[in-house]
Each structure stands twice: as structure tokens, then as C-alpha cells.
């Protein structure tokens, strides 16, 4: 049996637990006494072994203590000796440092003097060489050896730089400038010939001469000048083809006229949009060929020469390009085609007022822009080896002709959207035709509701056009246009809503049927006379349908705003600006991969981002757009702030109109209720015992009750429509219940207001009024509506006999009765409470 001693060292060692555990480990057939005896013996033997081992180790430790003490003393002496040695070494180093510093200072002065002497020697040599070069340079030029002449002029330039601004060499400096210009002019014809005839070796030699005298700009200018002519011919080919087409059409017209045939059907015109792709294809082919040739002729400069050629080309034809684009946009619409004008002419206000910007104008502009975008992507591929800055400058030059249009994009979209709103059928209702108001109401509401999705489509199309054309760089201006046009649309809806109030009879019209303005007395006495109960409910149904207009407008505008905000977030991600303003052009390499036209970029190079290409050159514009993108990250941000406020106001006006229509009949039946003669009637003498009042409610409250009980049936169709559209029956039920409660509470409030206007009431009138109030309370109860405490107090006090009313009021103390109302009833019935 092994004894585990590890548990004895634990702090919470429990002897009883350990013994119990040891006993449980015994064999089942071994007696407990024997097992315990064996365990005791083993423990005793182990303890003796531990004691012996401890004694032995203690003796050995005592023997090692004197030896360790001697070692410690020796180490301390060695440390003191080492400290003394280090101190003496430090003193020596400080002395050496002082003398070395003096030596180094002296050597530095000597080295400075030596370098100055060498510089003076070299300057003297350069001065001597400059004089010699100046005297022999004419001989070099006379020899016709242009490389040698370039080398001589380069040496002269070096010598002049070395001697600095010395008055004695001023004439030589002027002579050098003249000679460099002379050599430049001598190189020009040879370089031009080499470029025209593709002589790579000669072109490379001439290039070396110009570079040697620091005239790389001359190389760029000569190269651009030579190749700009054939490219301009490609551009002018459009006018030539137009003239030939025009002459062919005139000839065709003459032939058709001589044959008495309608010549209009055979007239042909050359479209700029159809011609532009062929121009881009030919230009691209020309640039690709130049790129390949320049790799051989100018291996050091081809990455800048060919892009420079394209940049200068676009600058040269930019004005003509803008004019052609403008005319091309006008040809898609008959009004502007007839005038040979385009969108820029419309914006300038030079055209008749009837000529407006049309969607087709912008679509034609975007089509041309997309053609240029395809060309730009091809250019990016061809120039993929060029420097980042050069490539982006080239792409900006390609899009340069469209900058005029982009700067006025917000104005163009505003014109398009305003025109789109103007063509919508939003005519207001007519209030002059008697008997057809219900039809006009329904028709107007239908037109209003159907116009909302059309307007949203207009707004969405404008947003898409902005992304396609400007890459989103004009979103800030577009949002202003969207907000203003949406405001314009909602204003029209509100004007229609005002006309609907007059048709529904809840508001006075500006002119009545006879064309006379209504007076103040007319305003209060005005009522809508219905020829039938069916026509009466047609007003209610028409008014309820206006709620769908409000709901549709609110939800559609909200969804569009969310979409617009999402677009701003996406644009913020795509436009990766880290510095705005003066540092923008230092971050061109960080433009994202998004060209706004679906193109892809070359791997490892700047991507084609139309928005970023514009913004790097217009820091103020970039700062304004970036501010908008930052604001859009706020959850409280409204993309259309003014329109959002007007939508809320329109929704409130709709709710107010619907409520006024639903409560109108109640208001008419309760009108002048407080002055009914029955309240002051007295009991008539009779030979027989008959009730002094009618056991039935009067017609006014009976009509109101029937109206309220029928109203849920009128709300049901609209509630079902909400349930079907939103797939939410709970919302439909809540809608119907909410409006029923509004009308019920309104009816109760109107009734209470009239009751309070009763100045005096007899017992017979009180009993009749008690029956009327009880009937209305029963109607409210049938509609699951509570009876207002004030109305219940009126009913209780009017139903109580006059001689018991005083005691009832004093004994209640406000527990069940509304005391001000109870006091008022007592006053009506001539009862003094004091």
C-alpha cells in the first residue's frame, strides 16, 4: 500500500477525511483494524525517514556557511577595486575628449579652406573656359554640327552657373540665350521632318539636342504642333460632311420638286451623336499609333508627350465641341430643333418663353457624355503606363467640353422637373356647378393620388441622371432643385385642398354661384344641401379618400428621402477625400473606382471617377459637397428639408379637412340647438294623465345618432384598402377606430357646447332633453365609446325632478357629477343652491 503525502502540505488538511479516504481504499476482504495498523506503521516509517533526511541536510548546510561568508567578503573587495579602476579611466577619457575636440575643430577649419580653394580654382577654370567657349562658339555653329553646338552651349551654361552673377560675363549670358534660341530654330525643321516621316533615329537625336540645352518644352510644342493638324482635320470632317449632306439634300429637293414629289421624306441630316463615336475611334487609333512610335523615338518621354498631345487637342477644339453638343441637345426636341438652339440657349433666356428644357434635352446630353466616357476609359487603358498626375490631367481634358453644362446642371434639372410638374393633370375642382360637387370631389382626389407616383418617378429620374452625368458632384445643387420643385408640387396640392374645402361645404368659396362674394353672415349660415342620402355619403367617401393621398405622399416622400440619403452615403464612400481644398490635387491617387458610367479602371492606376476629376480642380465646390455628405450621416438629416416640412403641414391640413367633413352633418343638426322653443315650453292642461314630454328623442339627435351609427360602414372600405395595401389588419382597425373616436368626441363636444348655451329650461324641456341625451349616450355606448362626464352630468341633472335636484347636487360633492355642470343646470332650472 502506497502512502500519498502530497495532501499533508495543504493548508486545509483534514486528518479525519484523509483517514476515511485511506480506509475506503482497502480491499473489501481486509479487516479494518489490520488496515489501520499497517497504515500507522507506514506513516511512522515515513516520518522517521523524513526526520533522518532533514538532520543530514541541516548538518551539511551548517558546514557550507563559513565558506560562503569568505566568498562574499572576497567579492566585495573585488567590486571596490573595479570601481577605483573605472573612475581613473573616466578621468582619462575626459582629458582625451577635450584635446580631441580642439583637434577636430582645427581640422574642420582646414577642410573648409581647402574646399573653398578648390571651388575658387574650378571657378577660375570655368571662367577661363567660358571665355574660350564664347570665342569659338560661332565656329561650332558654322560647322553645322548641332550635337557639338548643343554640348558647347551646355558647357557655357554650366560655366555661367559656376561664376554666378559677374558683371564681366553679362554679355556672354545674353549671347548664350540668343545662341540657344538659334539652335532651337535650327533643330525645328529637322525634328518636324522626322516627326512627319516617322524617322525615329533623327527624332531621337534632335530630342537629345533640345534636352542638352534645357528645351524640353520646345520638344513638346513641336510634337504637339505637328500632330495637332491631322487631328483637327478629323474634327472638321463633321462640318464637311454636314455641308455635303446639305448639298445632297438640296439637290434631292430640286429633283423631287421637278417631279412633283414630296421632298421632305428624303431629307437626310448628319447627327453629331452618330458621328462622334467615329471621331473618337479614329482619334484613339491615331493616339495608339503615336504611343507605339514614341516608345521607339522618345523612350524617356512618350508617357508625357502623347497625353500632352491629347490635352492640347481637347483645349483647341473645346469651344467648338461645346457648341456642337449644345446644338445636338436641341435637335431632339422640335421646338429647339427649328431654332437650331440647345439647352445653353434656353438657360441664357434668349429663346421665346414657351421654349422650355425637356427631359429629352438632358437625355441627349447624357448620351454624348457616355460616348465620351467610353473614349476616356479607352484612353486610360492606352495611357496606363503614364504618371498618375499626367493621366488624370488628360482625363480631365477629355471631359472638359461638358464642364459648362455640369456647372449649370442644377438649373437644367430644375427646368426639367418644373416642366414635368406643369404637365400633370392637377386642375382644381369647380364649385360653380350645382349638383355635381360629389363627382368633382372624387375626380380631384383621384387625380391628386395618381400624380404622386408620377412626381416621385420624376425625382428619381433626376437623381439617376445626376449620377450618370456628373458622377454625383452636382448632388448638392440637384437637392436644392428637388426640394424647390417638390415644394412647388405640394403647394399645388394645398391649393386643391383649399378648393376641396369649399366643395365639401366646410369652407366658403371665393365666389358663389351668382359671382358675389359671401358676407360674414353667409359664412355662418352656409350649408351643403344634398339631393339624396347617397350624394351625402359620396362627400364623406370622397373626403376619406383624401387620407390616402396624404398617406401616399408622406410615405413616398419618406422613401425617396431615404433613397437620396443612401445615395449620398454611397457617394461619400466612393469619393475618398482625406484633404479638402488646396491639398486636393495632392491626393489624386486616392480616387475611388467609380466613374459614374459603369466603367472599370486599370489595375494599380487611378480610377476614372467623373466626380473626383472635377472636384480636384474646384476646392470650393468640393468643400460644399463634402459638407453635405458629412451632414447626411446625421440620423436627423432631411435631404429635402423644406418639402418635408410642407408634407407634414399638408398632412395636418388633410386631417383637418376630413374631420370637418365628417363632423359637418353633426354640426348642422346641432346648430342653434340652445334656442329651440321646446326648452321653455310648459305642460298643457289635459283631462287625461299623459306624459308631459315625448318618450322619444327629437329629430335633431336622432339624425345625429343614425349618422354616427352609419359612419363605421363608410370607414370600412377605406380601412380594407389600408389592410390590403399594407397587409396589416390591425392598422386598418386602428384607423377606423381612431376616426370614429375623433368624430364621436367632436359630436359630444358640440352637443355640450350647445347645452351650455341654454339660458332657461322648464321641467318639460328638461325631461325631453334628458331623453335626447340618453339616446346619444346609448349611441356612443354602441360604438364602444364612453359618455363624457359632463354629458352624463347633464343627463342626470335634467332627469332628476326639480325639487330633488338641490339635494342631489349637495349630497354628491363631485363624486359622480361634474359640479360646474351641475351648478349650471341648477341655474337653468331656476334653483338656488345657497
Automatic annotation (TrEMBL):
Pfam families: COG7 (PF10191)
GO biological process: protein transport
GO cellular component terms, A-Z: Golgi membrane
Location of this chain's protein in the cell: Golgi apparatus membrane
Domain of life from the UniProt record: Eukaryota
InterPro entries assigned to the protein according to its UniProt record, in alphabetical order: COG7
Membrane topology, from the record: Peripheral membrane protein
Keywords: Golgi apparatus, Membrane, Protein transport, Transport
Family, similarity comment: Belongs to the COG7 family.
Name of the molecule in the record: Conserved oligomeric Golgi complex subunit 7
Primary gene name: COG7
Amino acid at each position: 500500500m502506497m502512502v500519498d503525502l502530497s495532501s499533508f502540505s495543504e493548508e486545509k488538511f483534514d486528518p479525519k477525511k484523509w483517514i476515511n479516504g485511506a480506509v475506503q481504499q482497502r480491499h473489501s476482504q481486509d479487516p479494518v483494524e489490520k488496515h489501520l495498523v499497517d497504515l500507522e506503521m507506514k506513516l511512522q516509517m515515513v516520518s522517521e525517514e523524513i526526520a533522518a533526511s532533514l538532520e543530514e541536510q541541516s548538518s551539511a548546510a551548517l558546514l557550507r556557511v563559513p565558506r560562503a561568508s569568505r566568498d562574499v567578503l572576497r567579492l566585495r573587495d573585488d567590486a571596490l577595486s573595479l570601481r577605483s579602476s573605472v573612475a581613473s579611466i573616466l578621468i582619462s577619457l575626459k582629458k582625451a575628449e577635450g584635446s580631441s575636440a580642439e583637434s577636430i575643430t582645427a581640422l574642420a577649419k582646414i577642410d573648409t579652406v581647402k574646399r573653398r580653394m578648390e571651388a575658387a580654382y574650378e571657378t577660375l577654370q570655368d571662367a577661363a573656359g567660358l571665355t574660350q567657349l564664347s570665342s569659338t562658339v560661332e565656329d561650332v555653329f558654322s560647322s553645322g554640327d548641332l550635337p557639338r553646338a548643343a554640348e558647347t552651349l551646355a558647357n557655357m551654361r554650366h560655366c555661367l552657373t559656376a561664376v554666378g552673377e559677374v558683371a564681366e560675363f553679362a554679355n556672354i549670358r545674353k549671347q548664350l540665350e540668343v545662341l540657344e534660341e538659334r539652335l532651337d530654330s535650327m533643330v525645328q525643321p529637322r525634328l518636324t521632318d522626322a516627326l512627319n516621316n516617322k524617322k525615329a533615329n533623327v527624332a531621337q537625336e534632335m530630342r537629345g539636342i533640345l534636352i542638352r540645352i534645357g528645351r524640353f518644352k520646345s520638344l513638346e510644342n513641336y510634337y504637339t504642333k505637328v500632330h495637332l493638324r491631322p487631328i483637327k482635320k478629323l474634327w472638321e470632317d463633321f462640318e464637311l460632311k454636314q455641308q455635303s449632306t446639305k448639298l445632297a439634300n438640296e439637290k434631292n429637293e430640286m429633283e423631287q420638286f421637278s417631279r412633283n414629289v414630296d421632298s421632305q421624306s428624303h431629307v437626310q441630316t448628319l447627327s453629331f451623336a452618330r458621328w462622334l463615336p467615329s471621331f473618337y475611334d479614329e482619334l484613339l487609333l491615331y493616339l495608339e499609333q503615336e504611343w507605339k512610335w514614341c516608345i521607339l523615338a522618345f523612350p524617356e518621354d512618350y508617357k508625357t508627350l502623347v497625353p500632352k498631345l491629347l490635352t492640347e487637342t481637347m483645349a483647341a477644339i473645346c469651344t467648338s465641341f461645346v457648341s456642337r453638343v449644345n446644338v445636338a441637345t436641341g435637335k431632339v426636341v422640335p421646338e429647339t430643333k427649328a431654332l437650331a438652339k440647345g439647352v445653353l440657349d434656353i438657360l441664357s433666356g434668349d429663346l421665346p418663353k414657351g421654349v422650355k428644357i425637356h427631359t429629352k434635352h438632358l437625355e441627349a446630353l447624357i448620351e454624348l457624355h457616355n460616348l465620351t466616357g467610353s473614349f476616356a476609359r479607352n484612353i486610360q487603358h492606352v495611357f496606363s503606363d503614364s504618371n498618375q498626375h499626367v493621366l488624370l490631367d488628360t482625363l480631365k481634358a477629355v471631359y472638359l467640353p461638358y464642364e459648362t453644362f455640369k456647372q449649370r446642371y442644377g438649373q437644367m434639372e430644375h427646368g426639367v422637373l418644373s416642366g414635368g410638374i406643369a404637365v400633370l393633370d392637377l386642375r382644381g375642382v369647380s364649385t360653380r356647378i350645382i349638383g355635381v360637387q360629389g363627382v368633382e370631389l372624387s375626380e380631384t382626389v383621384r387625380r391628386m393620388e395618381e400624380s404622386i407616383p408620377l412626381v416621385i418617378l420624376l425625382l428619381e429620374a433626376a437623381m439617376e441622371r445626376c449620377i450618370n452625368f456628373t458622377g454625383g458632384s452636382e448632388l448638392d445643387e440637384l437637392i436644392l432643385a428637388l426640394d424647390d420643385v417638390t415644394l412647388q408640387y405640394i403647394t399645388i396640392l394645398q391649393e386643391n385642398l383649399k378648393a376641396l374645402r369649399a366643395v365639401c361645404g366646410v369652407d366658403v368659396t371665393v365666389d358663389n354661384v351668382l359671382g358675389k362674394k359671401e358676407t360674414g353672415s353667409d359664412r355662418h349660415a352656409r350649408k351643403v344641401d344634398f339631393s339624396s342620402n347617397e350624394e351625402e355619403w359620396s362627400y364623406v367617401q370622397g373626403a376619406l379618400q383624401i387620407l390616402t393621398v396624404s398617406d401616399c405622399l408622406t410615405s413616398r416622400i419618406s422613401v425617396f428621402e431615404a433613397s437620396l440619403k443612401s445615395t449620398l452615403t454611397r457617394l461619400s464612400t466612393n469619393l475618398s477625400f482625406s484633404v479638402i481644398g488646396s491639398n486636393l490635387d495632392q491626393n489624386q491617387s486616392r480616387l475611388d473606382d467609380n466613374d459614374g458610367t459603369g466603367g472599370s479602371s486599370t489595375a494599380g492606376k487611378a480610377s476614372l471617377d467623373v466626380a473626383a476629376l472635377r472636384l480636384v480642380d474646384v476646392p470650393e465646390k468640393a468643400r460644399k459637397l463634402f459638407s453635405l455628405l458629412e451632414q447626411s450621416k446625421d440620423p436627423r438629416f432631411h435631404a429635402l428639408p423644406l418639402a418635408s416640412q410642407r408634407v407634414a403641414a399638408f398632412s395636418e391640413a388633410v386631417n383637418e379637412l376630413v374631420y370637418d367633413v365628417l363632423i359637418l352633418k353633426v354640426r348642422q343638426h346641432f346648430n342653434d340647438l340652445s334656442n329651440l322653443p321646446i326648452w321653455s315650453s310648459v305642460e298643457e292642461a289635459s283631462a287625461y294623465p299623459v306624459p308631459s314630454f315625448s318618450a322619444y328623442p327629437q329629430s335633431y339627435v336622432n339624425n345625429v345618432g343614425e349618422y354616427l351609427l352609419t359612419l363605421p360602414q363608410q370607414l370600412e372600405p377605406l380601412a380594407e384598402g389600408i389592410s390590403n395595401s399594407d397587409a396589416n389588419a390591425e392598422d386598418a382597425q386602428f384607423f377606423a377606430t381612431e376616426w370614429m373616436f375623433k368624430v364621436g368626441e367632436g359630436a359630444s363636444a358640440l352637443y355640450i357646447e350647445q347645452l351650455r348655451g341654454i339660458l332657461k329650461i322648464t321641467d318639460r324641456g328638461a325631461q325631453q332633453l334628458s331623453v335626447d341625451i340618453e339616446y346619444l349616450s346609448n349611441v356612443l355606448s354602441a360604438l364602444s365609446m364612453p359618455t363624457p362626464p359632463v354629458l352624463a352630468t347633464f343627463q342626470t341633472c335634467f332627469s332628476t325632478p326639480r325639487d330633488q335636484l338641490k339635494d342631489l347636487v349637495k349630497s354628491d360633492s363631485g363624486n359622480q357629477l361634474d359640479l360646474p355642470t351641475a351648478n349650471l343646470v341648477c341655474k337653468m332650472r331656476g334653483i338656488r343652491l345657497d
